[in-house]
Amino acid sequence: MSFVFFDTETTGLRRGFDQIVHFAAIKTDNDLIELDRFETRCRLLPYVVPNPSALTTSGITIEQLNDKQLPLHDVMVAKIQRTLIDWSPSIFVGYNSIRFDEEMLRHALFQTLRPAFLTSSHRNGRADALSLMMAASALSPAAISVPRDANGRAIFRLGAMAAANGVTHGQVHDAMSDALAMLDLCRIVRDRSSDVWQRFVRFSNKASVRDFVDSGDGFVLTEFFGGSAYHAPVVCIGNDPGTPNGRLCLSLNLDLETIIAATAPDLQAALACKPSPIRRLRVNAAPTVTTLFDATEEMVGGASVEHLEELARRVREDEALRLRLTACYVASRPPWPISSYVEGRIYDGALPSLDDEHRMRDFHDTSWRDAYAIVQRFKDDRLRTFGLRLIYLGDRSVLPDDVRRVVETEMINRLMDDNPEGYPLERALLDTEAMLLQEPGNGVLAGYRAYLVERLERVRAFRRTLNMGSTQ
């Protein structure tokens, strides 16, 4: 199986609302020998407002983001899709990618009318090098050097990890440099701890995770919060309702008799506590799992393997208990919030129908004028919105005047309205000015401030024009 090590640079951390502006990937063989590499960039979307923190972190200036020589976002995403499909099947590896980079990629694909789940289809696997570094630190400390801050707290940031392990990192927060550093760190773990590496590779496959978790045996689930590893011996009690790849697991570090005897209200209250005795995992998200037999004493909290296995057996054999735990846990969860913006609704509702998938493909194989006719036939409201945006950016002249005004109004509102999910120009200006007070000589921030002031003036004038047009 080949590997693809990839990284993204983005305008911020808001998945679905910020955009990828730099993507890089390296394909290797099973021995981590490089076979190919790919890199692409794009210009800023007109309705996306970069976070100044993202610009100072990456060093990318607003002038670079608005370079007209760069391709449109849709063109960049098309290149990424073609390359990654050509490189499939592979195990896709990023650094904190399960939570961030893959989500950014999914949203980019979805918003450009392409199948969103590329890395979890085409017989691909998914894995996260950040989890590998943390797992190696916890399970095989000699495999990797982990730097620490003045308080002794582990630092797992990619740049710090690369420096601590003698990896030449190039330019920090450059997508290709980060992909290369990640690859070198993975080679170090593989060479020094074959067990940790093999477990990492094994559980990049959804079927392997599913078989392991659903086997009925207890195991240790390792989760990472704030740069620290937290271990819990657990047993799977069943599927997470409404989430095909989700599993609910009960911690075995508890008094099972108390759980069994608890009333429904008491049980629901106990499951709502933080940390909850119910742990969630996704079999398609490369979780860090370890057999009880292979776990260290620290990982099982000092309990004997025999005791934990007996608890796991009792839970698995008590179907009524498992059903009651699942029902109480689901009842204790707050409802999933529905986004007020279409960008936040990738997981709301069903996947695009087969007919809409055909229309998505046809959309990219025709003229903008014919694409408008295709958009009108989409059954999925989300796809219609994204399709109109793409046409507007590609050739707005093919849109009827009233439709064009709707698209423009939505974009202007995105830039101006102070919705908690959004990031309007005025808030970006306030954040940039606050950062400039701390770094008065920062050229990236100074240039961005000037851009925001000028852009606000233009957007306000354009909004007045739109409002006048709507009253005529």
How would you characterize the overall build of this protein?
The chain contains 19 helices and 10 strands. By secondary structure, the protein is an alpha+beta fold. The protein has 3 domains: 192 residues, Ribonuclease H-like superfamily/Ribonuclease H (Nucleotidyltransferase, domain 5); 128 residues, Exonuclease ExoI, domain 2 (PX Domain, 2-Layer Sandwich), CATH 3.30.1520.20; 119 residues, no CATH class. The strands form 2 sheets. It has a 5-stranded mixed sheet with strand order 3-2-1-4-5, sandwiched between helices. A hairpin with a 2-residue loop joins β7 and β8. α6 packs across α7. It is globular.
Topology:
Blueprint: E1 2-10, E2 20-28, E3 34-41, H1 52-58, H2 62-65, H3 73-86, E4 90-94, H4 97-111, E5 125-128, H5 129-139, H6 158-164, H7 175-192, H8 194-202, H9 206-213, E6 219-225, E7 228-240, E8 243-251, H10 256-261, H11 264-272, E9 278-282, E10 288-291, H12 305-317, H13 319-332, H14 354-363, H15 368-376, H16 381-395, H17 401-416, H18 425-438, H19 443-471
Parallel strand pairs: 1-4, 4-5
Antiparallel strand pairs: 1-2, 2-3, 6-7, 6-10, 7-8, 8-9
Helix pairs in contact: 5-7, 6-7, 7-8, 11-13, 14-15, 15-16, 17-19, 18-19
